[in-house]
Design a protein that fits this description.
Length: 216
């Protein structure tokens, strides 16, 4: 399965990715996770991305496309992959089309998780991430068993610098102007799978797995 997770910030892409990659045994490729890891390691790419991320802007296409192209060429992607947070605008989608064409593969499905804006700011500001494994929790909707400790790996939880009310609103605006048009782009290609993300996390996963079952 070669899949893309599309949806606004806070829609539950990272949350649902855990269940999807477990079922299909494919790598989870989150561009946001890649940039946060690069920043922790203090690489040049991470430092370049930081300013954009902190203000809620998109990292320039040439950086993101380069990172994804390199990642898709790794051997673990031969069996499939789940892209999360990429592509995020028309230029990135067209660049991805070229990469997959060059690799003689195709995208099987684009999982579009739909959640109304009024839910998203609460989801983003209450989000807590694991420093160890990147798992995402929520102070109300998915509280860890022990406060600030990851249920999966025992790592310390932290709040992302860009999960403030102000930056969340900026990211939502960018989503609507630049990323949401990709729903039509992939609908025209016949690969979109529309999922109601405004329900319990388990119900969202069940809807995704059912939709993927139809394209297997
Ligand atoms: P994304 O990767 O799309 O930005 P996340 O998966 O990190 O979003 O989810 C954002 C926040 O919302 C997290 O704190 C997560 O625990 C919470 N969340 C995810 N799905 C749901 C849901 N269906 N209902 C309530 N909260 C959710
Ligand atoms: P995410 O973890 O998906 O919420 O992404 C966090 C931040 O990383 C975004 O707000 C952007 O600054 C940057 N980023 C992640 N993916 C992309 C992308 N495909 N294009 C541009 N910037 C990105």
């Amino acid at each position: 399965m070669r899949l893309i997770l599309l949806g606004p910030p806070g829609a539950g892409k990272g949350t649902q990715a855990e269940g999807i990659v477990q079922k299909y045994n494919i790598p989870h490729i989150s561009t946001g996770d890649i940039f946060r890891a690069a920043l922790r390691e203090g690489t040049e790419m991470g430092l370049k991305a930081k300013g954009y991320m902190d203000s809620g802007q998109l990292v320039p296409d040439e950086i993101v496309v380069g990172v994804v192209t390199e990642r898709l060429r790794k051997s673990d992607c031969v069996k499939g992959f789940l892209l999360d947070g990429f592509p995020r605008n028309a230029n990135q989608a067209e660049a991805l089309d070229k990469v997959v064409e060059h690799m003689s593969i195709k995208i099987d499905g684009v999982i579009n998780i739909d959640v109304p804006d009024e839910e998203l700011v609460d989801r983003l500001t209450g989000r807590r991430m694991c420093k160890g494994c990147g798992a995402s929790f929520h102070v109300k909707f998915k509280a860890p068993k022990v406060r600030n400790v990851c249920d999966s790996c025992g790592g310390e939880l932290y709040q992302r610098d860009d999960d403030t009310v102000e930056t969340a609103k900026e990211r939502l605006e960018i989503y609507h102007s630049q990323t949401a048009p990709l729903i039509e782009y992939y609908t025209k290609k016949g690969v979109i799978l529309n999922i109601n993300g405004n329900q319990d996390m388990k119900a969202v996963l069940a809807e995704i797995i059912e939709a993927l079952g139809k394209i297997e």
